[in-house]
Amino acid sequence: MHLILLSHLGRSVRTSRVFPLVAAAIASVAAWLSQSLVLFTGTGDGRMALLPLSLTAAALALSVGAAAWWAVRRGASAVPLALLALLAVPWLPGRLPSIALLWTGPMVWLVWLAVALCMVAGKDHLRFQVTRPRLTAGFLAFVVGAFAFWQVSPSVPGGDEPHYLVITQSLLQDRDIRIENNHRQRDYRAYFAGELNPDFRVRGRNGAIYSIHAPGVSALVAPAFALAGYRGVVVFLLVLSALGSALTWHLAWLVSRREDAAWFSWAAVTLSATWIFHSFTVYPDGPGAVLALTGAWALLRAEREATLTDESIVPWLFHGAALAMLPWMHTRFAAIAGLTGALVLLRLPRVPNAAGKALAFLSLPAVSALAWIGYFITIYGTPNPAAPFGGEANALAFIPDGLAGLLFDQRFGLLPYAPVLLCAGAGLGLMVVRPRLRHYGLDILAVVVPYLLVVTSVAIWWGGSSAPARFFMPVLPWLAMPAAVAWTAFPSRAARTLAGAALAFTVFASAALVLVDDGALAFNSRVGYARWLEWLNGSLDLGRGLPVWWRDDEGPLFRGIGIWTASAVAGYFAVRSLERRRGLQNRGAFAATAAFMAAVCAMVAISVSWMVSGVDGRAAVPAQLDALRRLSNARRLLALDLKRVDRIAPAGVASVLHIAPPLSTVNGGAGRNDRPLFVVPAVPAGEYHLRVSRRAAGGWLMIGIGRDQFALRTEPLDASGPPISVTFPVAVRALIVRGDEEARQNVQGLTIEPVRILRPNERLSKDVARRAVRYGAATAFFMDDRSFPEPEAFWVGGARDAVVVLQPDRPRATLTLLVRNGAVENSVLISAGSWRDAASLGPGEERHIDVPLDQARGATLLRFTTSAGFRPSAVEPNSRDDRFLGVLVKVIN
């Protein structure tokens, strides 16, 4: 209602010179608040806010205000600025429900995106004409995919990607697909840093190891790998994906005959996270999607040629060749190939030269099918395509959970990341009820539905360690056609506005997965909630607010689907009821109203989900840690107690927080039984008290900072006693608490109480310690990966610089290091501030060095520089140690 009143106010004062200034002031204040951090303190209903007091923050706020002033002066609607009221809700004093903090953290970007789009919508529609739209669509898809790969390259190849590349190497080097020797030789080291064991279930009939993964995509990318290695494969896949994107646009246009509809459906598919990530990852699903889409093209070609006199068989030969390749990509793609081929054959009798075209279309698939069956007989001694999987679980009982999960699960589902594809569902319904489009809609359903039933009948329907909805990807571009039909047929402003909002959220979700943390947010695990939800808002338990599937409990999935569906339907009809209101005839006002209703519906759905799950919705640990990091990095901050509306001194912020991390779901190095009790990531430098709640006394706790065997503290789990105190002179990548078997049974929870956080001028380094090892009465924090810690000492890498922070247990003036050279002559330089010590050492030569310590800081940063190195595997015949080592350093107490 307040949006409607604001629209009347906007018309009455639009000509006033003051109005743009007011709009600018509102935008500036909102921009400043958007840079703040609002969080629960962990004690009762306490809330706190940290606001930046910096020139950068002020400049950003003023820039946003200036942009709002300019837009309003140029005639843009100011009504969407009312959406910024959502950002003020968390600042209200007193006790607030948990959901009031939804629009904090990165969630504020959604509000600003809505404001910007609604202000643009208030102007006349921008019309543009693309001369060569198919080429443009393909080029844009390539650019998006290439940028995404560049951004997430530290996280790929991962999952099963290296296994497909190993098959490629076997094809190129050995002219076979027996991969055991390639793994033994570690050929994968060219693109994968870890250890990679062969992925197989059963051996071949000759006793050799053949990968469980089909060789099709490996053979397809082999020429690119031979030319340019892994990077060449990525470029090839991006080009192939771009061609598929261009074809997606073309088929959407053929069905709708409208360019705006084709662009909408192209964006819905190509800008989804599922498409983007599978445009460059080495899985069969991306290439399989392009090959499968040629089948849809063949169906449309048959429809068109029925009215022409074209007798050429060449296009049908290529269509058949594309379908013939599908089973070689993955066994599950055989369903797409067979169903599409059958539909095409049903269409061909109506075209000229039907017999010749049918023969051309079937020739290569027939040969391919015989070779495909022969492949399994030759290798496994059976024509069964499921032979490589060794009886992997497959049952009709999996389908309900699998189908619902593939569509709606917050980690692996298609729609949570691309809700705009709901339009394709609406479009399919419209196609089926309209006589002119009915056969198109039935064809799509005849291929997509059986394929989805096949892939969701397997236990691992989510596709393993991959981006969302990998198994949906092969039929994803088929949805562009019904999405285009839906866009042309939406009967109201409400439908189009909400479709545009869904597309905007889809782009936002894809951008977040690509841009944040090197793409790691896209790769989820079955044992936790969607990773990006914690990034979106660290103060709230969004994981319990969205549908989620668990292997032993499908209730949260179906309850969540029901709650969100009811909320979405109610929101749609609410927006429909408002579209004819006189005060909402302005496009910007109506768009802002629709965005506000969408925000309200999301808040209601999340709140109801929390209520049904029996939780209060608070999960403040990530936000609390973010507050500590801001306190550690920012020189000036304004801290406020929002419940009492009182200022907090920066020195007292840490002591207000009580961090209670949940029990960890991350596997340890030795599997499930080695799982840490608690993992608290990215802990800033400072002093902390750890209090452990327990069922009973007994057992031992080990506290460290890395997922390794090194513990900085080993403490008994007593019935009572003082808290465990830990001090980090530098930020550490994680605080990890482990326990022995007895402690694992007794520990119930952990509370971390920050005592003091080191400010920027107090820290030894702005970098983060990767590992830490205790050596006698001192602790070494390793600030990079150029050192190799061992239990008694550490190696500094050869011919490189390495930074180590030494922290003695008690203040002392010096610390003695024993430096032992490796197997080659070497020069070593050790520096700490202005102090330096250099030595030239022969093979195996040792030297004691007294290092001065910074007693005021309690720790000292040392830089080691070596001029040469050796590999143990090169000097010791039985060694497999390929590390390039320089000197061994031992701390002498």
Describe, in short, the structure shown.
With 893 residues, this protein is α+β, with helices and mostly antiparallel strands.
Q: Which descriptor suits the 3D outline? A: globular
Beta content: 15-25%
N-to-C terminal Cα separation, in Å? 73 Å
What multimeric state do the chains show?
A: single chain
Low-confidence stretches: 1-15
Mind telling me the C-alpha Rg? Answer: 31 Å
Describe what this molecule looks like in 3D.
This protein is α+β, with helices and mostly antiparallel strands and 893 residues long. Helix content is 45%, strand content 15%. It has 28 helices and 23 strands. It has a six-stranded antiparallel beta sheet, with no helix packed on it. Helix 6 (133-152) crosses helix 10. The longest helix is centred in the N-terminal third of the chain and has 35 residues, at 222-256. It is globular and about 95 Å long. The termini are far apart. Residues 1-15 have low confidence and may be disordered.
